[in-house]
Every structure is written in C-alpha cells, then in structure tokens.
Design goal:
Blueprint: H1 3-26, H2 31-50, H3 52-62, H4 68-91, H5 95-122, H6 133-136, H7 143-169, H8 174-205, H9 211-254, H10 256-264, H11 281-299, H12 305-317, H13 322-342, H14 348-351, H15 367-376, H16 378-389
Helix pairs in contact: 1-2, 2-4, 4-5, 4-7, 5-7, 7-8, 8-9, 9-11, 10-11, 10-13, 10-15, 12-13, 13-15, 13-16
C-alpha cells in the first residue's frame, strides 16, 4: 500500500469527526458520543501515522530510528480499546456496570501501551524499517516481545469484538443487527490481518521468509477491515436518523388535512407566521400542532357535544375500534364547528355571553388520527354534509 492509501481513510475519519465535534461540545457528558469521537480520532491517527512517508518523517523529526513503531503500536492498541468501549456503551445497561467495564478495558490497554514503550526503550533497532519492522526485528530481544505483545492485544480485542457483536446481533433486529454483522465481518478481516502478521513472525523464528505477508498482504487486510467496521458503526446511526426524519415528515404530512381544515375557517389575522424554508422537520411539526391547537381553541364556542356523540355511535356501529371511533367523533365535531364558524361571520356566537361550547375530552388527543379520518371516514363526511346543509 502506498502512503495515499493511508491518507484517504485518515481524511475520511477526520471529516466524520469534524461533523461530530459540535455535538460533542454540546453533550460532553454523553459517554456514547465521547466513545464515537474517540474512535474516529484514533482511527484517523492510526491511518495517518501508519503511512510509510509519515513513519519516515516522524523518525526524522524525533531523531530516533524507528520511533514510529511504538507510536503506531500504541495507537492501534488505543483504537482497539476505543472500539471495545464504544460497543460497551452502545449496548447499554446499568450505568455503573457500563462505566466499570469501560474503565477496565481502558486500564488494561493503557498498561499495555506503557509496556510497549518500555520494551522499545530496552531494545535496539539500529536500522530504520518503514514497512517490515515486525519481521526484520522478529528475533531481536525486547523488540520481539514488543511485537508479540501488540499482536496479542489486537487479537484479544478482535476476538472480544466479534463475540460481543455476534451475541448482541442475535438479540436485536433491523438496522442495528445489520450494522453489528457488518462489524463482525470487518473484524474477521482484522483477524486475517493478525494471522498474516503472526505467520510472518513465526516464519522468521523458524528461519523462513514470509515477510511479504506482513509488509504487503496484512496492511491491505487491515485497511479493508477498518473501513468495513466503520460502515458497520455508522450504518445503524445514519439509518436510524433517516428513519426518524422520515417519520417526522410523515407526521407533518398527515397533520395537513386537519391543519388546512382549521385554517380555512380561521380569521386571517389569527394565522401563524410562516417559518423559514430551512427549518427542521421537528420545528415544522411543532408549529403545525400549535396551529391546530390554536384553531381548536378558536372554535371552542362552536363545538357541539351532540354532534360528537352521534358521530361516536355511528363509528362504533360501522365497526370502528373505540380509539378510532373517538378520533372520528372529534374530527366530526371539529369539521361541523368549522362550518358553524363560517356561517357566523359577525361572531355572534363568540360574542354571546351564553357561549359555552363543548370541549374535547380531557387528556392528549391523537391529532394525526383525527387528521387522517377527517378525509377518509364516512362518519366525518356525513357530519360535514349535515353541517353544510344547516
């Protein structure tokens, strides 16, 4: 792999992190968000510092031959720990238990990083190696132990990730399961990477030369594994956000008939101010619901309990469930009130001291269901016709 093959995914991780930083600033105490940002940051650093050109630059700037080796190994270990912590927080559970498990993983890999640096300082690497340090120094005291330690640490993380993600995938459904299975696939590539690394090192111990496995095959497998795993982490979050957005826009659209019904009978000075075109779907739904409630408040003197009661009985007789029948009855009373208001342009009913009205039942109302049945229910259509006839 050339240096640009490392820099492209590093830039992708950096871009994703940049989009997450504002959310991190607003919700710094969210452990899941912190874990996501740590993973993105460490993944980008691993790709950046593992590039051959960066390895050479770091060695030159520090003045220490092969200084990049413990640096990259430490970053790989930290990245492995961040993946484990992310899965632990993503899966959820009792807060104290989640924090305890996360701290254990962080502590274990922190100790491993310290040992890696110590072994490098105790060893001797006089010849700079940009691509094949693992195999070139496979028989060098202390450096040999450092190489084995970081490979074992990555293996523990890879096996643990596969076990946790696979078990969790068997308990969930939808996009989350798909994402977890993709993560499992990505870590299978990582395990293949480790197998090639171990094979090359073991071959050196036996006096054979399989260095190409470590210097050529392993980096490609690692790159594929990291990118596939990144897709697995991002897919459920992106798809869930898309599903939430789709649901919000669907609610906004479904509220349309009731909103337009109430606006048609509302005085022009009572109409709400238009919001900007770039406003979020959530804000649009909130305003539409507010407009509907304001419209109902203006129709209060024209609500007729008898209309609602007859509509409810007719809906039940037509086979509607009680919940749907209540929505049909409320919608029938609203549509009749709109026409009663239109027939009273001077507002005599509103100005009457005896105007009492018949309020909707206490408690939350299903505005969406009311809006849907407003145009679909024969019971509501019949109430509308009777009101227009009167």
């Amino acid at each position: 792999m050339q240096s640009q093959d490392y820099y492209v995914p590093a830039a992708a991780m950096g871009t994703a992190l940049a989009f997450k930083v504002p959310s991190l600033v607003r919700a710094w105490r969210d452990p899941l968000l912190r874990a996501v940002c740590a993973l993105l940051a460490l993944a980008g650093l691993v790709f950046f510092f593992a590039a051959p050109s960066t390895i050479a630059d770091v060695n030159r700037l520090t003045g220490v031959r092969n200084f990049s080796a413990p640096l990259v190994y430490s970053l790989l270990s930290a990245f492995s720990a961040s993946c484990l912590v992310l899965i632990v927080n993503w899966r959820g559970g009792p807060a104290e238990q989640t924090r305890r498990i996360s701290r254990r993983w962080i502590a274990a890999y922190s100790v491993e990083v310290v040992v890696i640096v110590t072994l490098f300082l105790l060893g001797d690497t006089p010849v700079e190696r940009l691509r094949d340090l693992d195999t070139y120094y496979a028989n060098t005291p202390f450096i040999r132990e450092m190489i084995v330690l970081y490979l074992v640490a990555l293996t523990v993380a890879g096996v643990s990730m596969n076990v946790m993600c696979w078990r969790w995938a068997l308990q969930v459904h939808g996009w989350l399961r798909t994402g977890l299975l993709i993560i499992v696939l990505g870590y299978l590539f990582n395990l293949a990477y480790l197998i090639t690394k171990f094979s090359a090192v073991f071959a050196r111990w036996g006096g054979h030369d399989l260095d190409y496995l470590s210097s050529d095959v392993a980096p490609t497998l690692a790159s594929w594994g990291a990118q596939i795993s990144a897709v697995g982490f991002c897919l459920p979050l992106v798809c869930q956000r898309f599903a939430d957005s789709w649901s919000t826009w669907t609610t906004y659209r479904q509220l349309g008939p009731l909103w337009r019904e109430l606006r048609a009978g509302a005085p022009s000075q009572g109409r709400s101010v238009r919001i900007s075109w770039w406003s979020s779907a959530e804000l649009r739904v909130t305003q539409r619901e507010s407009d509907i409630h304001d419209g109902m408040l203006g129709l209060f003197p024209y609500f007729d309990a008898e209309v609602r009661a007859k509509a409810y009985e007719s809906a039940l007789a037509a086979g509607s469930e009680p919940v749907l029948a209540h929505a049909e009855a409320d919608a029938a009373m609203v549509t009749a009130a709109v026409r009663a208001r239109a027939a009273d342009p001077l507002g005599k009913v509103i100005n009457s001291a005896e105007a009492a009205g018949s309020p909707l039942p206490e408690g939350p109302r299903d505005l969406v269901r009311m809006s849907v049945v407003l145009r679909q229910s024969p019971v509501v259509a019949a109430a509308r016709e009777r009101a227009e006839t009167r």
